[in-house]
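A quick aside before the break. I want you to see a complete sequence-to-structure record at least once, exactly as it would be stored in a machine-readable document. Don't worry about memorizing anything.
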Amino acid sequence: MKLFFAAASPFARKVTVSAAELGVAIERVPAAPHPINRDRSVVASNPLGKVPTAIADDGTVLYDSRVICEYVDALGGGGKLFPAAGAARWRALTEQALADGLMDAGILLRYEALTRPAEKQSAEWHAGQTDKMVCALDELERQASGFGTRVDIGTITIGCALGWLDFRFGDMGWRNGRPGLAAWFAGFDARPSMAATRPA
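That is the input. The structure line, written in tokens, reads:
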């Protein structure tokens, strides 16, 4: 399977961590996604021009990270990162949605800062997206005691989100007042799959 990816993308990292956990081989194809100057090599396969975009060995094109990660799970035998049914499945999927939303808000902040002149940036927009991130982090702190040593799409997405905050929002201090989440992440981030995929 080929994967269009950007090294700094937390969504692409979700896929590479998932693949590493399952021993699924992926050929990474560097891409340069941008909200304005779109990478046409990606657009040729994915009209949204976003990473990650995957091309399966049979030519099937898959996007976005949620779909690709579930496909990787199927390649790895199924039901390993995506629980098959019941409460465990809904918990993992909801955790994935929460962490995805945290990353989405952060990316919107970055796009605002990178693509709009300072005089056209909105303080209200910045405050709203920041509040989403803070609320998501507070909820993750409330849930952290239940993460344990679990490795599924929920905890992988949370780990990638927190690692991305360290990379892009290092001055945010997300660990402040969130000791449970910080302690859990310290252990999860030491996993070989996480160590091998850290953005640089």
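Two observations worth writing down. The radius of gyration is 17 Å. Residues 86-195 form a domain with the Glutathione S-transferase Yfyf (Class Pi); Chain A, domain 2 fold (CATH 1.20.1050.10). We'll return to this after the break.
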